[in-house]
Amino acid sequence: MKINLIKAKTILQKTGLPDCDWVVNPYTGCRFGCKYCYAAFVGRFTHPKEEWGSYVDVKINAAELLKIEISGKKGIILFSSVTDPYQGLEAKYQLTRKCLQVLADVRYKGEVGILTKSGLVTSDIDIFKEIKNIHVGMTVTSTGDPISQYLETYATPNRDRLKALKKLHQAGIKTYAFVGPLLPHFVWQEKEMKQLLTELKQTGVSYIYLEHLNLSKYIRDRLYRFLKKDYSQELARFKQAQSPEYRRQLDKLLAKLIKQVGLKVAYGRAIYHKDKQSWQAMGPRRI
């Protein structure tokens, strides 16, 4: 993997995401390089000839910029939107930790959100406790079957993500889970899907997100390229995820399972990237 140390021009960026007002991406690129990742499009502009997951730009001045840019700001800040703030390089460079320390030092009054696939997140429990209103989330897409492991090759194993969520909850940190994207090879296995939701409930999460698979052209082309190479037998099932009828039937199944398990779901149902206006209108995600 290629690592580039860079100085960013800005770190606190306004966002159009419905769940937050600002995003902080301490890194550009992500070593996890998940094969369905929507953020892979970032590389078209910064690393046009490099595969997503093969490079990471380390914004070494992230904390210094945040000290300046946080002045007068309010609202919800998310770490991160197009990278994983706790990918392995965080252990060395600690950019996420340094940025969070800035927010703790200024006693930031807004909300702070974390979303990661890395068990490394538990190393910052001490700083999480210094921030008044923080929610720490873990993306968990399956119980760890071989295809899911293939699609998320370099991310923390799902079992360890569940352990991390439980550890955060036991430390008094408010937690949530992001079950997305809903992977077509997994979601129709009702027993396994219920098991995943049950195990998330047992970690103590306050709520979960559900998200349908984003198959925009750039994501679709990249994902299908990998599936054709190593899991061609699953390609037809993934292609079905583009169908509105597929999503309707999946929503029905998920509604049943969520009721059985007793979980709370942000927005009340699975979100879909092309239906942005409607899920903004569903009401607040906080339960």
UniProtKB/TrEMBL annotation:
GO terms for molecular function: catalytic activity; iron-sulfur cluster binding; metal ion binding. CDD domains: Radical_SAM (cd01335). Coiled coil: none annotated. Keywords: Iron, Iron-sulfur, Metal-binding. The lineage of its organism: Bacteria, Candidatus Beckwithiibacteriota. Residues 20-238 form the Elp3/MiaA/NifB-like radical SAM core domain. The keyword Iron applies. Pfam families: Radical_SAM. PANTHER family: RADICAL SAM CORE DOMAIN-CONTAINING PROTEIN, SLR0285 PROTEIN. This is Elp3/MiaA/NifB-like radical SAM core domain-containing protein.
